[in-house]
Each structure stands twice: as C-alpha cells, then as structure tokens.
Amino acid sequence: MTSSTIKVGVVQQAVADNDKATNWENSARRVAELASQGCECILLQELHSTLYFCQNEDTDAFDLAEPIPGPATEFFGALAEKHNIVLVTSLFEKRGSGLYHNTAVVFDRSREIAGKYRKMHIPDDPGFYEKFYFTPGDTGFTPIDTSIGKLGVLVCWDQWYPEAARLMAMAGADLLFYPTAIGWDVNDSDEEQARQFGAWQTIQRGHAVANSVPVIVANRTGFEVSPTPNDPGIQFWGQSFIAGPQGEILAQADSDQEQNLCVELDMTRTEKIKRIWPYFRDRRIDAYDDLTRRWRD
Q1: Start and end of every CN hydrolase domain (predicted)?
Q2: Is 46 assigned a catalytic role?
C-alpha cells in the first residue's frame, strides 16, 4: 500500500438502451462528481456501456463487443487521466473472431491500461445466458498493481465463489472489487427477493471477513425489458455497497435509483484486523488437496 487511507467511489447506474455514447457520458458525469469529492479509485458496474444483453441468446448482440484497446478503453482511459484516478471499468471484449470475454479493465491515472481481468465463472440461468456469449477467462486470479495498491478485480458471478476471493487475497490484493449486474425476476415474491439479496450481500461480506480486506461492489439498477416475448425481464436490485475488512457495511445505495457512494477506507485498520484474526496463519493447507476436485465421491 502507498497510503494509509484511500477514498473509494462506486457508480450505480441505470441503462435505458444500447447508445454507448450516452451511457458513457452518464458514467463520466458520475465519475466527475466522485472525483470532485476526492475519490482516488472509482468502480463502475458490469457491462455498463449497454443494456444487459444476456437475457436471451442472439448472435446480433455480438456486434456490441469491442476490442481492447478500442473505443471504450480510449474513452475511459482519458477519463482516468483527466481526473487523476484509478478507474475500474467493465466491457464486452471481442478478443478475436468468435472469441469474446466479459472483461474488467483498470486504468491508473492515465490512458494506459494498468491491467485487465476476464470473468472466470460464467453463469447460464434463465435471463442470464452468459455461456452463449462469454468464454471463461484465462487471466487467472492475479491482482492488478496500481498507485493505490493491489486491486483484486472479479466480476459478478465470481462473487459467489470464496475460492476466487481467497486466491486474490493470497496474491496480495489490498481490496476486492466486484462490478455486477444482478436482479430479480419480477414474478418472485417479496420474501424470495429479500432472500436472494440477503444471500448476495452476505457472501460478499463473508469474503471481506475471511480475507480481512474491504469489498467494493457496483450493481446496476432499473428495469430492463427482455427481448423474449412473455419473459418478465429483470429488475436490477442496485444496493451497491462498500464493506470494511470485518464485513461491516460502510455505505449502501438504494435499490431503485442511480446513486454514487464515496467512502474513505483506513487501510491501517485492515492491517490491524489481519494481526488479530490471523486466518492465513492458521489455514491447514496440508489438508485442502480435495478443493481442486469437482466433487468428493
């Protein structure tokens, strides 16, 4: 770490259409607001350039993908340089003909790409048909070095896997970041919706606790109509949040509106927590071989 405190920001955004320029300008305005509040590091949500196109399987949606570098990385790199910030972005990457990834790209106070992470865990559920679009990542669980420290950047479905968070922490990640696009089936009961949100937030707070690092989560908000007739669409539940190294909620957005979060993190406290809760000291790595198996028969 290069500083004892870091002010981090989160942008929670609604997306109305696939007009990238309009969506980028909305992000840029919100990034500027957070930068004016002193945020040194800002996280945008998953696939913030367009609608969440994975509600169905449509080969035309591949036209939304971009190479790296490309128009999106040029725009957001310039934004990071303008505001002198570390910026964590998310895009639909066209790596090659017929090869696409869900990719987070980090800029460190300049137009240059500091690093990228390709989403490793790819879901395939009703309304979330990501396996049709994304090849699993091959960048591994490696933190990205920046001027504010090592960033453990993961993406959405990765957030349900303690192994991913652990491996990032083991490689020295100072903070964990999760750009996210998750929401409810509008036909679910209020009770079921509450259970789903509770599970989502709890497991990420658990990653903070188990690894003694802050967790920063940006989720999208708003309702997005499904292109499939008679499909209910997705009500993205927002509620982006920032948690401290004991899983404590430091800031949380509302469920139904665009919103910014800004929190100053005391990284010396993170170090103190690691000293009094020495999970890494007491791990029984001699007994964990079976974790690399799919199942124990």
Answers
A1: 6-267
A2: yes
